[in-house]
Design a protein that fits this description.
By secondary structure, this protein is an all-beta fold. It contains no helices and eight strands. Strands 1-2-3-4-5-6-7-8 form an eight-stranded antiparallel barrel. Strand 2 and strand 3 form a beta hairpin. It is elongated and about 85 Å long.
Length: about 160
């Protein structure tokens, strides 16, 4: 009697978002407020998600460097670091989510900690790689104790490897 070889076992479920991930992002920052300007941003991120079925909850840290000038060259956004919570809906290979948390901006005028919130999307291209994007709104009320308040909107394209 001839039997067919057993089918290979696929342990990675591309529809399960549970696990660690890390990657990079590139994008654009638009700064408005007492001083306005814009420029490129880019950096790295790492986090963990837990998939409850259709609901996905997680946390992430990310760090971007920037060449964004604001105030007509008066100041520059050097970097921004974020500590995020995120929650979203699992559509199989697509994850739509909302995110928010605390951000720390480092500028040529000094540092400032503020809040941020936004939305994002990730699409599972392979079992271990996602491509997506985020739009985040930041509010900084007193940069470097100068009294200068700015709001920054960032738009990034993100790539993440899943472990």
């Amino acid at each position: 009697m001839v039997t067919a070889p057993p089918a290979p076992v696929d342990f990675a479920d591309p529809n399960d978002w549970t696990g660690f991930y890390a990657g990079g992002q590139l994008g654009y920052a638009d700064i408005d407020g007492n001083l306005s300007g814009d420029g490129a941003i880019g950096g790295v991120h790492a986090g963990y998600d837990y998939d409850f079925g259709t609901l996905v909850l997680g946390g992430e840290v990310d760090y971007d460097t920037s060449d964004a000038d604001f105030g007509g060259g008066v100041a520059q956004l050097d970097s921004i670091a974020r500590l995020k919570l995120r929650g979203g809906y699992d559509f199989g290979r697509t994850l739509l989510y909302a995110t928010g948390g605390v951000a720390r901006a480092d500028t040529s005028l000094g540092d400032e900690t503020g809040g941020f919130g936004g939305v994002g999307m990730a699409y599972r291209l392979t079992d271990s790689f996602d491509l997506g994007g985020e739009v985040l709104y930041h509010d900084f009320s007193d940069i470097g104790t100068t009294g200068i308040a700015v709001e920054a909107t960032t738009v990034t394209v993100r790539g993440s490897f899943r472990f």
